Amino acid sequence: MLRPRLCGIAIEPMPPPVHGMSSKEKHVITQNRRGVGIGAALIAAALAITACSSSSDSAGAKGSDAAGPSASASAASPVTIKVQSWLVGDDPTTVGPTLKKIDAMFMAANPGVTIDHVGLPFDNYFTLLRGQVAAKAGPDVVMAYNSSATLEFQKGLLGLGSYYTAEDRKGLVGFQYGTDTQKIDGEPYVTPILSEGNLLYVNKKLVKQCGADPEKIPREWDGFVKVLEQCKAAGVVPMNLGMKDGYAISWYTQNATAQLLSQDELLKSADGSVPMNNPGNVWALNAIQDLQKRGLYTPGAEGITVFSEARNNFAAGKAAFHFGNLSEGGQLYKKPLGADLGVALFPKIPGDKYGDFIVAGPGVGWAVTKWAKNPDMAAKYIKFTQSQEPQQMLFDQGGELPANSATAPKSDYAPVQQTIDWLALPDNHLGMVMSTEAGAAIWKNATLLLSGDLSADDLIGQMQAAQDLVNKTKK
Q1: What is the pLDDT of residue 18?
Q2: Is 111 exposed, middle or buried (0-12, 13-18, 19+ CB in 10 A)?
Q3: Does one domain contain both 250 and 378?
Q4: What is the model's pTM?
Q5: Is residue 438 part of a domain?
Q6: pLDDT, averaged across the chain
Q7: How far apart are CA 219 and CA 435, in angstroms?
Q8: Reduced to 3 states, what is the DSSP secondary structure of residue 341?
């Protein structure tokens, strides 16, 4: 089974799921989506927000078994675990409240332990975390992504390998094929709480108006484009798009590189050795420009954000098709679209090397900081959130796909159940990993690519130049 790693572009691991329109609805794939230069004021804010714990680097050991002596608490020795996430900070309706319920369950099962869960906005989250790592102070547990993006913060995180048995690793999506950090030093630093990926959403009602069968969306790219042309001719917006922030490009690069690169190339992409002008990236960027020239995207897409404007447009029935994250169907579109919502796999590109698969892998996860005063209890909390009952709650109440394979969610909503079924496809995997710097070149130039003011070749050249600088600093 080919499953290299998470969210190709390290700049923000994968169009993250939905978790609250204001964060995840802002998406997609990166450690510092909106750039790194927010400066000292935000770093100071990070330290103030989290009621900083010890600034020492004393918790560098990998820790004993999570059930060991220091993992227990009593009324005589109360323990407070400070947890930091953007899901609690940005999602007031589904995932955030569910996590709070899970926190309460953990505290009830562990008398004397208090979970102090602080929510931060996703937009500035990784800038704030960067400041905390630099100061060696902040929360005990932090939310992060299971991807190469974690490497930026590795010096501030505790290795979690000793807390997970072979059986644990087999049961969690993130351990099923290894995170990027595991490949480098054999030690996992982030373990998953959710699964993530992306697929094609279909407005069945509009597709019928286009004269096409929504239950038989062509599997080949050229056939799919013909359906888009039919929609245009029928006066229906064919493909939903928001390109203002650039994150929508990731669905194309992820799917194209996942189809056109070999397993070896996908695995090697984490070290920056795979050239940016590979067939996947070349196809993806040219395909975006081609659809734009044909008039098959939402008009004015250069001024529309992916999170949450483009998603809101699709929910409002303003386009026939939409590329999005796995959890969007149940969270965002079930109520407004109901039986009119369908799902489909990303169309096959000429040269596809695999069978049917969905771009999917480990999503957001947890890490323990090196300065945590009680790393064993922090790890115990993380493992609790990954256990079957909390995972089922995240699915039932938040619509999130679980990272624990022992959790077998069922949905009475056909598009969601189909998505769950596709997660069992044997060839499921992710596309290539890009450095934060290479990814930033994409986001910065997305609207220029869409307008045709920048060619695909020129953008790829900028991506390669950025990657070359990263590779040079590694030597």
Answers
A1: 40
A2: exposed
A3: no
A4: 0.75
A5: no
A6: 83
A7: 31
A8: strand
Cα 144 versus chain centre, distance? 10
Q: How does pLDDT run across 56-89, given as a tens digit for each residue?
A: 333 333 333 333 334 545 445 899 999 999 998 7
Per-residue pLDDT tens over the stretch 320-376: 999 999 889 988 999 999 999 999 999 999 999 999 999 988 888 999 999 999 999
CA-to-CA distance for 40 and 283, rounded, in angstroms?
A: 40
Rounded-to-integer distance, Cα 196 and Cα 408, Å? 16
400 lies in some domain: yes
Q: Do residues 344 and 320 lie in contact, with contact meaning Cβ atoms separated by under 8 Å?
A: no
Q: How many residues can be counted in the chain?
A: 475
Answer yes or no: do 147 and 294 share one domain: no
The position carrying tokens 């079924």 is 421
Q: Which domain holds residue 317?
A: 198-360
415-447: string of b/e by CB count within 10 Å (b at 16+)?
A: bbbbbbebbebeebbbbbbbbbbbbbbbbebbb
Candidates 59, 23, 50; CA nearest to 131 is: 50
Q: Is residue 192 part of a domain?
A: yes
User: Coil, helix or strand for 305?
Assistant: coil
Q: What angle do CA 215, 420, 208 make, to 5 degrees?
A: 15
Alpha-carbon torsion, ordered 125, 127, 129, 131, to 10 deg:
-150
pLDDT of 93 higher than 80: no
d(CA 227, CA 208): 10
378 pLDDT above the threshold of 80:
yes
- Is residue 173 within 8 Å of 361, Cβ to Cβ? yes
CATH of the domain at 69: 3.40.190.10
Cis? peptide before 455, omega within 30° of 0: no
Query: How big is the chain by its Cα radius of gyration, in Å?
Result: 22
Distance CA 349, CA 358 (A): 14
Which residues, listed in sequence order, are joined to residue 81 by a DSSP beta bridge?
115
Res 176: pLDDT: 58
Please tell me the total count of domains within the chain: 2
Residue 146 shares a structural domain with residue 245:
no
Mean of pLDDT values over 196-220: 97
